């Protein structure tokens, strides 16, 4: 089953390779072409961290009405910044190690938010500064992309080893009796 988080992760990845406006307008036009309501389209775009439905609609009109130069003009002069891990490669190594350790624990409670907090903590330690706001240094969405890039798979934790035949016979008998009592 396709999860909204999978779509959001792919969108976040594509955002790094392409203009967010182009991606949002593309999604907007596809959804509207298949008669998805404006409200649902707007909610979907917001949940994937794209433009809102209102802004995507505006840019779709610009694109459709032929003002292509205005549509592709980014207004940022093409300036690109260094990647976070180009500046802090040690945080990338420590982040990978942290993710591996957390994923190998029996308790399946590790999330991209945990990685974002870890990266923020290490960032402030390396720069010897105090955290002044509640904002994260790296967003949860970008941390999910890092985890995917590092080979982590997101699967629902539905295994329940206690009920998969690892029980003693007396425990199974008691459980069946307890369930049949109700």
Descriptive report:
- This protein is mainly alpha-helical and 182 residues long.
- The chain has 2 domains: 69 residues, no CATH class; 102 residues, no CATH class.
- Helices cover 62% and strands 0% of the residues.
- The chain contains 10 helices and no strands.
- Helix 1 packs across helix 9, helix 2 packs across helix 4 and helix 7 runs antiparallel to helix 8.
- The longest helix has 16 residues.
- The two termini are 34 Å apart.
- About 3% of the residues have low confidence.
Compact overview of the structure:
The protein has 182 residues and is mostly helical.
Task: Pick out its properties.
mainly alpha, 10 helices, 62% helix, 182 residues
Mean model confidence by pLDDT:
79
- Name the overall outline: flat
As a percent range, the share of strand residues is under 5%
Helix/strand-derived class? mainly alpha
H-E order: HHHHHHHHHH
The number of helical segments is 10
Number of strands: 0
Low-confidence stretches: 160-164
Count of individual domains: 2
Percentage of helical residues? Answer: 55-70%
What does the radius of gyration come to? 23 Å
Whole-Å distance between the termini?
34 Å
The largest pleated sheet is described as: none
Secondary structure blueprint with pairings:
Elements: H1 4-17, H2 20-33, H3 38-47, H4 53-64, H5 68-72, H6 84-87, H7 89-103, H8 112-127, H9 140-149, H10 169-181
Helix pairs in contact: 1-9, 2-3, 2-4, 7-8, 8-9
